[in-house]
């Protein structure tokens, strides 16, 4: 019995680490600029496709290290330009929150179908970062899952460090807490918005690179990611990175144990039931703040 | 206000004129398939077969001296009104003389196309489509199914599992299916058959598409240690992730993938890693060696044109076009739909492997010259080990005990 | 507003003169009317009331299933069952609306979209099968609407078209009346400043809940109508395709620019059909179009019409 629970616990941990990595970018952008990015899932796929083009298409030397070195700046540039071109011009309008959702939904439709036209509708697979399993007798953990867990947690920690200890990080936090005040002390708000969007693109794109080797890449594969990230950010509190981290692991565990006890069809019901119950008590999520 | 009225009228006129010009003196063939959305892959498989058939007929001088002209329609994700729209567009507006679909709506298609007279070929593989047909066989007499039903296919899978030259260590089975009509249909039939034979269904789960973390289910499987695991999710990502996570700590279970072996990526991605998995394809062209020289030539031709092995559905859809064309030749008039249908129903069609015969429900039942093929992945290739019904080993190809069962 | 609506519906009403004999065209016209109502309801709740509801497709499907089940199981004539379906959708709408009204922006979108997400596994699963949804196979036999012995089946598309037109006009007039009434003004006030309006005694809660109920009712009723027209149902309407298409209607028509949503439905459905032969390029173009339109045409076609014909009302705010 205990062994089985340990096994399920490990699945929960794996889920959680994946979700944490995915959700943190979404919560960041919402927290700082109140923009909800519907194309978030397509950005995830972008990371996966970039990795695929580099590894399988070009056959780049140096494997995943080169992929990260090349893909991350590209993702950052893409995020920055996207924000400047299609999100920033909407900010001054009335109803801009709805407009941002709509325009990013349009972008998602465009990107997903661009992938389909360019790469075909069939899934693409990538070589694993590492092979093999760690055999502990009754419990077996794949090295792949360990790598994902380690990289995603350290990625988030690095990200928190940037937020807390660098000039740009402090500017981001200032804008998030008090946009008006930030403007008065001379922080270029628009640049901060674009920068957070770029960072969020990097986070989710890196997640795409990391997870593509386990879950593959396909044109519409991002929707699942978007919905899960959305649930996690709302549950943890939109804009709260720590809340998102907790939420990711709580929901990861919930998914594993509900799947084990009741079956996989109940996972979605359970996720939304817990989310609704939480929001009924705390409308701002676990650790979110209004404003 | 006047300008406004004129603008509205312009829009109105544009809408009315959205009628493409009609080409003269060809025979139009309707092809409603998923070109966008979740079913694009299967739509592509069918299209490749249909395209070859049409090109072949056109290259050999056409049908009754006329060239065939395919009219495509994107059925997207088979929403009811979309299926109906396809029928109204192809049969009602474009006046096609036959319709060649693949997966077409699992019963919705029978209703939509049954209103018209042009012969309609689908690959639904679904009892609910046959049920709709049987409500009014006269009205739906132009509807043909290219494959047997989910129930019969699942029974065939069961028979082959029982016929494997392999000693099962216990009588426990785990059944995991997608929550769509096909998955649930196969799952229920399999469960019933296993129970009748005195087996215990240790686990029977329906999972949504997109499931890629199998931890909780694998924990239960590792506890139950079933002799057979049947997985029925026709989508590559789900079945590959399942296999890889299963192999982290495998139980001695025969992995039966049913129709999920079909997506090309399964074998392409895993190669010899997938060796040992078994699966099923209805209306199949057995591989690696086809049953007849004609069939082998067909496979070679397909590979030459598209650059890869034919997928499930390609040959069935191809044969649908050829069966219709043969009937039109015999009748001498593509417009006489009733006579063409009558000819197909009574005479059948002689294809590469032999005769196709449709039963009284216009279903191409498995067996005879067109059986269900049962495969095992061996050396990274799909190898036919059995055909059914009746269960017969195929040529000299033998079942090999999977490496994790040894 | 009313004048433009009359012109649009008038224009549609004479369409059967040109294409009455072509079933395919009539089917498209009927679907235009159905989506026009759904999109208008969405516009009412999102564009006017400022609630980010993403559950409109869900309520449409709930209404469709409810009406099909009620008429199949209890033998209630479809003419009445679509109202029952509207009622069921309205009750569910209020149930969803209650928790939503404490939430903000993207949270409301998520909770309402959750209804959409959960609906598919529910309808396919054991609970759904128990109430008669037919599981993943769907419902393949639904009786047509029958008025005084005349059956509105898909074979009589011109008749169905005019029945749909009547329904669409009624729904649109209701929506128009709501916008013109005290409610509409209240919503505008709430959108501009919730705190200020509250201090003037405008109760956000009451109006927002009422708008949830009303839009769910109309959407559910139209969903029921759809079920009896098409005669079959499956969960395949819950794919992302329809959701996005409806949103495109709003973008093209203009958000909060009623009756823009109706024009949006006409343009979008037509465009969708014309682009359909292009396969995957269709959604690619539609997606690109949304991006461009949101940037260049903030008020959609209505905004464009106003710019062309000028004069009449610069902005909605000016009118209010």
From TrEMBL, chain A:
Keyword terms of this UniProt record: Amino-acid transport, Cell membrane, Membrane, Transmembrane, Transmembrane helix, Transport
Query: Coiled coil located at which positions?
Result: none
According to the record, the segments passing through the membrane are: 12-32, 52-79, 100-119, 139-163, 192-210, 230-251, 258-281
Q: What InterPro entries does this protein map onto? A: ABC_transp_permease (IPR001851), BCAA_transport_permease (IPR052157)
Pfam families of this UniProt entry? BPD_transp_2
Q: Where in the cell is it found?
A: Cell membrane
Q: Which CDD domains match?
A: TM_PBP1_LivH_like
Name a single GO cellular component.
plasma membrane
Per the UniProt entry, the signal peptide is none
Topology versus the membrane, per the UniProt entry? Multi-pass membrane protein
Domain of life, per the record?
Bacteria
For molecular function, the Gene Ontology terms on record are: transmembrane transporter activity
The yes or no answer to whether the keyword Transport is present is: yes
Q: One biological process GO term for this chain?
A: amino acid transport
Family assignment? Belongs to the binding-protein-dependent transport system permease family. LivHM subfamily.
What is the protein name given in its UniProt record? Amino acid/amide ABC transporter membrane protein 1, HAAT family
From what organism does this protein derive? Desulfatibacillum alkenivorans DSM 16219
TrEMBL record, chain B:
Question: Where does the Leucine-binding protein domain start and stop, copy by copy?
Answer: 26-356
Kindly state which keywords UniProt assigns to this record, in alphabetical order.
Amino-acid transport, Signal, Transport
Q: Does the keyword Transport apply?
A: yes
Asked if the keyword Amino-acid biosynthesis belongs to this entry, the reply reads no
One GO term under biological process is:
amino acid transport
Task: Note one Pfam family from the annotation.
Answer: Peripla_BP_6
Which Gene3D superfamilies does this entry report, sorted A to Z? 3.40.50.2300
**Signal peptide (residue range):** 1-23
InterPro entries in the record: BCAA_transport, Leu-bd, Leu_Ile_Val-bd, Peripla_BP_I
State the coiled-coil residue ranges. Answer: none
- SUPFAM superfamilies linked to this entry: Periplasmic binding protein-like I
What family does this chain come from, according to its entry?
A: Belongs to the leucine-binding protein family.
This chain belongs to the protein called Amino acid/amide ABC transporter substrate-binding protein, HAAT family
**Organism of this sequence:** Desulfatibacillum alkenivorans DSM 16219
TrEMBL record, chain C:
Where found, per UniProt?
Cell membrane
Q: Keywords assigned by UniProt?
A: Cell membrane, Membrane, Transmembrane, Transmembrane helix
Keyword Transmembrane helix present in the record's keywords: the answer is yes
Q: Which residues span the membrane?
A: 12-38, 44-67, 79-99, 105-123, 160-183, 209-230, 242-271, 283-305
Q: Name one GO cellular component term.
A: plasma membrane
At the top level of its lineage, which domain of life is listed? Bacteria
What are the protein's GO molecular function terms? branched-chain amino acid transmembrane transporter activity
Its protein name is Amino acid/amide ABC transporter membrane protein 2, HAAT family
Q: What is its membrane topology?
A: Multi-pass membrane protein
